[in-house]
Design brief:
Elements lengths: L1 E3 L7 H6 L7 H9 L4 E5 L4 H12 L5 E4 L6 H13 L6 H6 L3 E4 L2 E4 L1 H10 L2 H7 L6
Parallel strand pairs: 1-3, 2-3
Antiparallel strand pairs: 2-4, 4-5
Helix pairs in contact: 2-4
């Protein structure tokens, strides 16, 4: 499991011009989610986040894990993830924290703990992980 803490990301065009521009929370989530075969957005003390991480590790997957409570701009990214998971335009702070974990496989949003568990139970999780290159068996 690769733990990533507080990565700074700058816009490439801004680097060429010598300016420092920050990515929007949505752009950061998209870039982080597409960086590895399996990416988990989590919060350190979340029991359901722990369950998903342990399941993936138990299957032999080493996911990249972003602990959003330790990331600069983590609350904004949580709101983006809550929006992506719920499909509704507005989210409260409590629904944003309830949206975690958020699991991306092959750069695409798989879902939260319920979706990951249902895929595991119905047998579709391992093929998804193989297709994304996270498993070789």
């Amino acid at each position: 499991m690769r733990m990533v803490e507080g990565e700074k990301e700058e816009a490439p065009a801004a680097e060429a011009e010598g300016k420092v521009m920050r990515w929007s929370p949505y752009e950061r989530v998209a870039r982080m989610a597409s960086g590895n075969a399996v990416v988990v957005f989590s919060v350190s003390g979340c029991c359901m986040c722990h369950v998903v991480k342990r399941l993936l590790l138990g299957l032999g997957v080493g996911p990249t894990v972003y602990e959003l409570d330790q990331e600069k701009g983590g609350r904004e990214m949580q709101a983006v993830l809550a929006h992506l998971l719920s499909g509704s335009p507005s989210t409260s702070a409590s629904s944003a924290s309830a949206a975690l974990p958020a699991v991306f496989v092959g750069g695409k949003l798989l879902g939260g703990v319920e979706k990951v568990m249902s895929c595991h139970i119905n047998g579709s999780l391992v093929p998804l992980l193989k297709q994304a290159g996270a498993l070789w068996l």
